Amino acid sequence: MVTKADIIYIPDITTKCERPLFMVPVTAGFPSPADDYIEGKLDLNKYLIKHPAATFFVKVAGDSMIDAGIHPGDILIVDRAIEPADKKVVIAVIEGELTVKRIRMIKGKIYLMPENENYKPIEIEKEMKFDIWGVVTNVIHPL
User: Fold this and answer.
1) Are 91 and 113 members of one domain?
2) 3-state secondary structure of 46
3) Which among 67, 70, 63 has a CA at the least distance from the CA of 90?
4) Please, are residues 4 and 98 in contact by the beta-carbon 8 Å criterion?
5) What does pTM read for this prediction?
6) What distances in angstroms separate CA 25 from CA 30, 31, 38, 62, 86, one per listed residue?
7) In this structure, are 42 and 79 located in the same domain?
8) CA angle (122, 123, 129) in 5-degree steps
9) Does 25 share its domain with 63?
10) Counted domains in the chain
11) Whole-number mean pLDDT of the chain?
12) Catalytic (active-site) positions
């Protein structure tokens, strides 16, 4: 299955959900008390969304971007204010279908590259209906 943007969401930036922010590095070894290291509050909207009016979320369907750490069911944060550029992960529309791929500019041609060896790159031809909706800035991925 091709990795597609399955569901589109608009962020609600009017809500606040500030959580404690610990500025001490977290070790994978012996635990240490952390109460003394609380630096303040972190609102994920402020941290993850740089251009609120130009940002949307999409839910991923498919596995063509799995080697980039994008899995089925993940939520992608997409910013339309960021200029698409070579090697960026983008949400593109090809012939009316949304897809997430890494954009590559090679010898004057545009390719949408999957990050799963089971899929082939998509070369964008002049006659194709093609548009880029935005650049993926973050992936929300459950462990």
Assistant:
1) yes
2) helix
3) 70
4) yes
5) 0.77
6) 12, 11, 12, 34, 33
7) no
8) 90
9) no
10) 2
11) 84
12) 64, 101
Q: How far apart are CA 42 and CA 75, in angstroms?
A: 20
DSSP string, 115-138: SSTTS--EEPPTTS-EEEEEEEEE
Q: Which domain holds residue 110?
A: 4-10+51-140
For residues 41 and 91, membership in a common domain is answered with no
Specify the amino acid at residue 133. Answer: W
DSSP label at residue 81: T
Task: Please check whether residue 13 is in contact with residue 111, taking contact to mean a CB–CB distance below 8 angstroms.
Answer: no
Q: How confident is the model at residue 53 (pLDDT cuts 50, 70, 90)?
A: confident
Regarding whether 130 and 87 lie in a shared domain, the answer is: yes
State which amino acid sits at residue 32: S
CATH number at residue 71: 2.10.109.10
Q: Indicate if 72 and 59 belong to the same structural domain.
A: yes
Instruction: Give the phi and the psi of residue 68 in degrees, each rounded to 5.
Output: -95, 5
Q: How many CB atoms lie within 10 A of CB 89?
A: 21
pLDDT confidence of residue 1? 43
CA distances from 117 to 67, 100, 101, 137 (A): 9, 15, 13, 23
